[in-house]
Design goal:
alpha/beta
């Protein structure tokens, strides 16, 4: 699953194993995709676009239900860190410096 696009998505595609699939759901880094057809042809990689904006509510509910059933909540909590909004600037710098692993949730309340 890639939510960044551009060079990051190209690198993900290049690193995907034979017959693997990548779901792209964002374009935070850019709309371009600087890659070749090599991952698709040589290793059978599939790139699937995820349209979360126009997805009907019943399908969203079904997807969230499945995620709740399939995800290991203990593992997910190990990969996730909640930070207060007041720490976002410092943590953003840590993120840019490559010091952050996993996912961050910014508590805006």
């Amino acid at each position: 699953m890639d939510s960044v696009g551009s060079h990051t998505l190209a690198n993900v595609l290049a690193a995907t194993q034979r017959d693997g699939a990548v779901a792209a759901c964002g374009m935070a880094q850019g709309l371009d995709l600087p890659t070749s057809v090599a991952p698709f042809i040589l290793r059978g990689v599939t790139l699937a676009g995820v349209d979360s904006v126009m997805c009907p509510i019943p399908l969203r509910q079904q997807a969230w239900q499945r995620l709740g059933e399939l995800l290991d909540s203990d593992l997910l909590s190990q990969l996730t860190q909640v930070i207060p909004l007041s720490e976002a600037s410092q943590v953003a710098q840590d993120l840019l410096d490559g010091k952050v692993r996993g996912r961050l949730i910014v508590d805006c309340l």
